[in-house]
């Protein structure tokens, strides 16, 4: 559980860095909200749905990959 919390914290900080000008910003915001709720459930001792957390983590990673690709393309132009 501690490892998952650390991963969520890392993802939150990375998602926060996505520029508001990015087409991914709205999705990143929604995923951040879901991750924050998951983290809150974990820290409060509530029963968190592990599969839902895994799906949200996967979504966050996908957004971060897309944002990195977006930045890479922008630097090339």
How is this structure best summarized?
The chain is mainly α and 77 residues long. 81% of the residues lie in helices and 0% in strands. The protein has helices at 2-16, 25-44, 50-76.
Q: Can you describe this structure?
A:
This protein has 77 residues and is mostly helical. The chain has one domain (2-76). Helices cover 81% and strands 0% of the residues. The model has no long low-confidence stretch (mean pLDDT 92).
Give the terminus-to-terminus CA distance: 42 Å
Order of helices and strands: HHH
Kindly name the structural category: mainly alpha
The rounded Rg comes to: 13 Å
Largest sheet: none
| Shape verdict | elongated
The helix tally amounts to 3
Helix content: over 70%
Instruction: Give the uncertain stretches in residue-range form.
Output: none
- The fraction of residues in strands falls at under 5%
For this entry, give a set of tags.
elongated, 77 residues, mainly alpha
Question: How does the SSE layout of this entry go?
Answer:
Elements: H1 2-16, H2 25-44, H3 50-76
